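Example 173, ligand fe (ii) ion.
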Amino acid sequence: MSDFEITALVLAEHEVFRRDFAALDDLSGQELAAAWEELHAKLEVHAVAEEELFYPLLAQEAPGGEEETAEGVHDHNEIRHAATAVEQHEVGSDDWWEAVRNARQVNADHMAEEETDFFPSFKEAVDDEQREALGMRWLAFHDEHEQAEGLSGEDAVVAEVVATEVPEGDPTV
Ligand SMILES: [Fe+2]
Ligand SMILES: [Fe+2]
């Protein structure tokens, strides 16, 4: 299995989030503001990429996948709200840090659930070839939406995610 299999790429980005949240602790002022803004954008790109490429197939192919998808999308919206709440405070203030810690916690809990509960059912239901092709789409999606460009940041709707048609095959061949 190559490094471009979709769950390997999702996991790699989870590790980036863990590092990025920890790295905030050592920053202040403009650097802190810029690092948070970048992290916030990356969280949104990650969530939408999963809602377009991972969760629809989990819902459609895996036994119990629809409930897992509902949980995952619910978590994504919770993370969105937690991240938006950060923006309501002055960067570096006590209230700001409290909001960041909350966003970090809800995101950490969600990532753990994906890795522990959702990846195994997904990998059982979606074959290697398709997961590799989805990995290429995952990378292409990130190229298209750098800094969350073109993404609304609005809540995702479970029924829409479940009904999303994911194209088959590698987009680069
Ligand atoms: Fe997620
Ligand atoms: Fe994720």
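Summary: The chain has seven helices and no strands.
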